[in-house]
Amino acid sequence: VTACEHLVIGSGAGGALTASMLAQAGRDVTVLEEGRWVARTEVEPFSLSQFAAQYRSGGLSATLGRPPIAYAEGCCAGGSTEINVGLYHLASETTLARWRKSHQVIALDSETLAPHAREIERALSVQLLPDPDFPASRVLADGAQALGWPAMEVPRAYDYSGAEPVKQSMTETYLPAAIASGARVQCETRVRRVAMRGNRALGVLTTQGKIDAEHVWVCAGAIGTSALLRRSGIRRNVGATLRLHPMVKAAARFDEPINPGFEVPVHQVKPSGTELSFGGSASRPGLVALALADNWPQNRKVAEQWEQLALYYASARPEGHGRVYPLRRFTEPLVRFDLSDRDVHVLAEALGRLVRLLFAGGATAVYPSVQSVPALDSVSKVDDLVRAVNRHNLSVMTVHLFSTAPMGEDRGRCAVDSFGRVHGTANLHVNDASLLPDGPGVNPQGTIMAVAARNVAAFLADD
Ligand SMILES: Cc1cc2nc3c(=O)[nH]c(=O)nc-3n(C[C@H](O)[C@H](O)[C@H](O)COP(=O)(O)OP(=O)(O)OC[C@H]3O[C@@H](n4cnc5c(N)ncnc54)[C@H](O)[C@@H]3O)c2cc1C
Questions:
Q1: What are the CA-CA distances from residue 8 to residues 23, 62, 214, 270, 400 (Å)?
Q2: What pLDDT score does 346 carry?
Q3: Could you please report the per-residue DSSP string of 151-168?
Q4: What pLDDT is attached to residue 302?
Q5: CA-based Rg of the chain, rounded to a whole angstrom?
Q6: Where are the beta strands (DSSP E) in 219-259?
Q7: How far is the CA of 81 from the centre of ligand 1 (A)?
Q8: From atom 3 of ligand 1, which residue's Cα is the shortest distance away?
Q9: Which helix (H) or strand (E) holds 344?
Q10: Which residue owns the Cα nearest ligand 1 atom 49?
Q11: What distance in angstroms lies between residue 79's CA and the mean position of ligand 1's atoms?
Q12: What burial class does residue 71 get, using C-beta atoms within 10 Å of its C-beta: 0-12 exposed, 13-18 middle, 19+ buried?
C-alpha cells in the first residue's frame, strides 16, 4: 500500500475498533502494526513463552525512577488485548465528571457512552463466568466477606460456547470484522513518524516505506502514541503527563491445591472510602517463581508447591506522574515515573490490606513482593510489613498506562480535543489509552474502547 484514506497506527483496543468502525462505514482503511499476527494456537495464554511472542521487549520494560516500575504492553496484532485478562469495566460517572471538570472534556458522560459500550460488550461477549466456583478467585470473595469489604465478580470478554473458553481479543473480534469490511492489516510494520505539512498529516514513514493518507489515527498505546507524536514534531502537552495504576503483589499459600495454572481470578475487592483495588493475577508456575524471586533463597523450595500458591495484587491511583522521551537512534523511548512519598505510603498500606484479605480468605502464608522482607505466617506481622516497606525495597509493576495525550478543550493541558483530534491539526487523531485524562481506577480497556467508539461516531457524523 502506498496511499489510503484512513491510516490507523496500532491494532490494539483503540486501533482495531477505530479500523473496524471506519471500514464498516465504507471508508478505505489500512492498519499498520509493529508486531506480528500470532495465531491463538501458537502460544499458551499467560505463559512465559507468550512474553517472547507477544510482549513488547519480551516483557522487560521498566520506568526510570525509584522504585522503577516494571510495565507490560503487547506488541502484536491486537496489541495488549492479546495478553490481557479480559476483565471488563466502564469508567464510573464520577470518573467521567472528574475528566469533564479537570480537562474540560465535552460530551462525555455515562449516557453518551452507553450505546457504544453496549455494542462493544456484545462484540466481545462480555459476561460472567458460567461456573464462578474457582478457588483462587473465591479466596478474594471469602476474604472480603470476612472483613466486610465490598467484592464483585468482574465480567470478562470471553466466549464460552466452544470446547475451550476463548478470550475475545482484537484478533478474534474487531480485526476480522475490519478485514471483512475491506480494511487491510499490515503487520511487522513500525511507523517511524507522521509526516506533517503545516496543520495537515500527509501520511507516515514506516520501516517498509512511505504511505500517504487523508486521515491518520494514532493508536499505538500510551507510550507508543506519545513517542511517535513527539518524534513527528507534535509535542504540545504530549508525553509529559503519563499516568498509570501501580500494582504491588503477594503470593499466597494455601493448605489445599487452588491453582489450576491457566485461570486468572475474576473477583475484585474495593474497600469503600478508598481508591484501592485488590484482585488476582495469572499464576502459571513460571510466574509464581518470578513473584517469589524478590527473596529467592528463602522462597525457592516454596515455588515447587505452585499448585498451592496463587498471586494477588493491590492497585492504587497515584498522584505521581511520568514522562515519555523518545531517543534518537533507539527504537524504544525512555519512560520516567515518579511515585510521590504519599504514593509509596499508600502502596505500603495497600500491601498490608492485601495481606489481611488473603489471610481472611484462607491463606496460611503470604509472600509479599518486597526485597528482604520475610514471608508472613499470620496477620499479626502486617504492621511490621507496612513499616518495613519503602521506595528502595518495594517491587512495583503496572499493565495500565494512560494520559500521554490527554483529551479536552483546555488547551493549556490537553494535546487533543474532546474527540481525539490533535489540537491545531486538521486530520491527525489519537484514539487509544493516551486520551484518558487520568487513571480510571478500574481495568481500562472497556473505557478506552467506548471513548474511541464515541470519537469515530462523532467523526463520521461530522465528515
Ligand atoms: C498483561 C496485561 C493485562 C491486562 N489486563 C486487563 C484487563 O483484564 N482488563 C482491562 O480492561 N485492561 C487490561 N489491560 C490493559 C489493556 O489491555 C490496555 O489498556 C489496552 O489494550 C490499551 O489499548 P491501546 O489501544 O491504547 O494500546 P494497545 O492495546 O497496547 O495497542 C497498541 C498497539 O500499537 C502498536 N504500536 C506501537 N507503536 C507502534 C508503531 N510505531 N508503529 C506501529 N504499531 C505500533 C503496538 O505494537 C500495539 O499492538 C491489561 C494489559 C496487560 C499488558
A1: 11, 27, 11, 36, 22
A2: 97
A3: EEEPPEEEE-SSSS-EE-
A4: 92
A5: 22
A6: 243-244, 247-253
A7: 6
A8: 84
A9: helix 341-360
A10: 79
A11: 5
A12: buried
Q: 131 pLDDT band (50/70/90 cuts)?
A: confident
Measured in angstroms, how far is the CA atom of residue 381 from the centroid of ligand 1? 38
Instruction: Give the catalytic positions in this structure.
Output: 400
Residue 33 Cβ < 6 Å to ligand 1: yes
Q: Which tens digits make up the pLDDT trace of 433-451? A: 999 999 999 999 999 999 9
Percent of the chain residues past pLDDT 70, beyond the cut: 100
| Atom in ligand 1 nearest the alpha carbon of residue 445 | 11
Q: Is the CB of 84 under 6 A from ligand 1?
A: yes
CA of 300 to the centre of ligand 1 (A): 33
Cell 470484522 identifies what position?
Answer: 177
CA-nearest residue for atom 14, ligand 1, is 84
Strands 209-218 and 267-269, bridge-based pairing = unpaired
Residue nearest to atom 46 of ligand 1 (CA): 75
Indicate the length of the chain as a whole number: 463
Helix 445-462 and helix 110-123, axial crossing angle in degrees, nearest 10: 110
Residues 6+ apart with CB under 8 A from 331: 190
Direct distance between the N- and C-terminal alpha carbons of the chain, in angstroms, rounded to an integer: 24
Count the neighbouring beta carbons within 10 Å of the beta carbon of residue 64: 14
Measure 344 CA to ligand 1 centroid, in angstroms: 26
Section 82-109 average pLDDT: 98
Q: 228 CB less than 6 Å from ligand 1?
A: yes
Atom of ligand 1 nearest to the CA of 56: 47
Tens-digit pLDDT profile for residues 160-204: 999 989 999 999 999 999 999 999 999 999 999 999 999 999 999
Cell digits of residue 176:
476480522
Query: Mean pLDDT over all residues of the chain?
Result: 96
